[in-house]
Amino acid sequence: MPGKWYIQLIKYLVLAFFTFIFAYPIFLMITSSLKTNVDIFTNPLSLPSSFNLDNYFEVWRVVNFSSYMWNSVIVSSVSVFIVLFVSSMAGYYLARYDLKWNPYLLLFFMIGLMLPMKLAVIPLYMIMLNLGLLDTLFSLIFIYVAGGIPFAVFLFYGFFRTIPKALEDSARLDGCNDFQIYYKIVLPLMKPAISIVGIVNLINVWNDFFYPLIFIRTDSLSTIPLGMLTLFGEYDTQWNLLFAGLTLSSLPMIIAFLFASRQFMESLTEGAVK
Q: At a CB cut-off of 8 Å and minimum separation 6, what does 247 contact?
């Protein structure tokens, strides 16, 4: 067809344009992390004059970045693991067992999607204060788990209902109990849902600034978004160190996204055959 190459060219141009739009801020962040503070103001869009990693070493030393990174890793990994574990079991239970209270239980989880938790920040603050969890990482973990479970249960519930029950019936004939069916048969088929829930919750927890600002007071317990606040001064901001810190904090998210997206695509092609 004579016009076919023209349509393909337009598609590639559109894809290249949007790729540039999304990738350029990341490129600008990385190049700015290699500049001095003066170069950022004088030549903000230019390439760095020299390849210098001093900003990375300085941000690691000046703002206690290693402690912030470790706190973010603990909070993010524990929160995402609990959300995946609890939500996958709850979604499997709601999708496979026809009990009279299940619709009300599902409605209870759906209410969590309708009510934004940030509106209840004062009651949450009082609860953490009364439980003695204020200014601890456990307060953040509890809040992130409570906020992530409703969406995860909703997603897992929908995915579990698409899996044929014949697979589970065959496993029961082979002597598997309900937990073995969930763990060995159903859960491996849920890699797309696990990838989606995992990456969405990981990004939300890792980049969150609001809840650490409210519940954390000790600098050594700060996460990366809250710790980067120390670089903003009343009269001066160390933009070179800020961009270096943002680059370091974004690397785990980029790696996690690439890994989760690869798992998602592989799971779509493998299906139930595996």
A: 29, 30, 33, 56
